[in-house]
Design goal:
mainly alpha, binds tryptophanyl-5'AMP, 3 domains, three-stranded parallel β-sheet, 16 helices, Tyrosyl-Transfer RNA Synthetase, Rossmann fold, 413 residues, two-stranded parallel sheet
Length: 413
């Protein structure tokens, strides 16, 4: 492999369930395109997957399946420019995370919307199980708690303002009332945001992601739109490190958009996601794909067959744009507006086209599952190469930060 001068690509995927068409269209398809022209490193991020509830016994199988699925999608680690490995097989990822933690302000992490979303969803799942209520109801209640907390903060405003002008002579009674008020605001915020039960690892997730990218000094990161905020943090960390330690060690990595920045789930409400069970897995059997599509949400205003539809609000139409030919998608668009075609027929055509596109991926995945050695060998070789690259970066990081045995030995000479 020619290590020099090719812009480096890095991206990752969690082994936390079925790889779905959102992952494929938002990221993996782009990974495959970029390989030819770039030194490309791809990672199954198991250290990230353990930041939420998971079954340890099932994780090795999931990790294997994720690796086999991305290979089946077209990633070929035997080609010169492509490296695939498992994150936990290269321990420098977690080491660099710790070092980055020391220069990452808490405030930057509190801004991360994925942390708030994921922790709130996890809490809602637990509370729904305990109470027997629907998860959506519990989520709604949690959001309400957040709103009430905002009102409580508003109510505290006059007290805070009363304190400010006389900061030298603080009224003890007022201060005590303020403290009490703030205590309940903090509690409300934690419950409202769902962050109280979240792990520190989930909070720190974006720093680990920055370490993944910067360990290899990658400058291009093909990911879906939902990762943009994490990439901003990655640039913030790289910039801060370079400035603080007066060395330009890290690049400011940019997102490379995939074919679809954000694929919506079959519920039509939220983005397609493994945890929301609103997805089409790239390895779902044809019958299941058809069943899922036939049940999918469409234009809510098209109640009867003869009602004209609005393709611009229909997720099935959006999917036609990715899986059907432009001419067929245009024809279906027109047919829907004129009520010349019903949702059932439109869905059947989509299911046929999705199955045709996923067929070769399923075949390759079946082959790899029957030949697990091919996957394991690729992952072992990938990890070996990554350990070497990571060690070079860690040497420079240690040197810059004044830690590690080399710096101490030099001092003692
Ligand atoms: P993960 O496993 O959640 O998602 C993997 C990739 O799929 C994209 N994606 C989507 N794109 C479009 N529409 C959707 N509905 C959709 N759902 C998921 C994600 O944007 C992602 O590109 N944090 C990362 C994993 C990661 C990583 C990294 C990525 C860890 N370290 C370093 C890049 C670089 C994630 O969420 O993966």
């Amino acid at each position: 492999m020619n290590e020099a001068k090719k812009a480096r690509v890095f991206s990752g995927i969690q082994p936390s369930g079925d790889i779905h068409i959102g992952n494929y269209l938002g990221a993996i398809k782009k990974w495959v395109d970029l390989i030819e022209e770039h030194d490309s490193i791809f990672c199954i991020v198991d250290d990230h997957a353990i930041t939420v509830e998971y079954e340890a016994k099932k994780l090795p199988e999931r990790t294997f399946e994720a690796a086999a699925a991305v290979m089946a999608c077209g990633l070929d680690p035997s080609s010169d420019n492509c490296t695939l490995f498992v994150q936990s097989h290269v321990s420098a990822h977690t080491e660099l995370t710790w070092l980055f933690n020391t220069i990452t302000p808490l405030g930057s992490l509190f801004r991360m919307t994925q942390f708030k979303e994921k922790s709130r969803n996890a809490l809602a799942k637990i509370l729904a199980k305990e109470s027997g209520e629907a998860r959506s109801t519990v989520l709604h209640e949690l959001k309400n708690t957040g709103l009430q907390t905002a009102e409580a903060i508003e109510a505290l405003r006059p007290r805070i303002e009363a304190l400010v002008p006389e900061a030298d002579e603080v009224d003890e009674g007022l201060l005590a009332a303020l403290n009490d008020g703030l205590g309940s605001v903090m509690q409300g915020l934690q419950v409202g945001l769902g962050v109280s039960g979240a792990s520190t690892g989930l909070f720190d997730y974006p720093v680990l992601q920055a370490a993944d990218i910067l360990l290899y000094r990658a400058s291009l990161v093909p990911v879906g739109e939902d990762q943009e905020q994490h990439l901003e943090l990655c640039r913030e960390i790289a910039g801060r490190f370079n400035k603080k330690f007066k060395k330009r060690i890290f690049p400011l990595a940019q997102r490379v958009p995939g074919e679809a920045p954000r694929i919506m789930g079959l519920d039509g409400k939220q983005k397609m996601s493994k945890s929301l069970n609103n997805h089409i897995g790239v390895l779902d059997p044809p019958k299941l794909v058809e069943k899922k599509i036939m049940r999918a949400f469409t234009d809510p205003q098209r109640v009867r067959r003869e009602d004209p539809g609005r393709p611009e609000v229909c997720n099935i139409h959006r999917l036609h744009r990715f899986f059907s030919s432009p001419a067929q998608a245009d024809e279906l668009d027109e047919g829907c507006r004129q009520a010349a075609i019903g949702c059932g027929d439109c869905k059947k055509i989509l299911a046929g086209n999705v199955n045709a596109a996923l067929g070769p991926i399923r075949e390759r995945a079946d082959y790899l599952k029957a030949h697990p050695g091919d996957v394991i060998d690729a992952l072992d070789q990938g990890a070996a190469r990554c350990r070497t690259l990571a060690a070079q970066t860690m040497d420079e990081v240690h040197e810059a930060m004044g830690i590690g045995s080399k710096a101490l030995h030099r001092f003692c000479k």
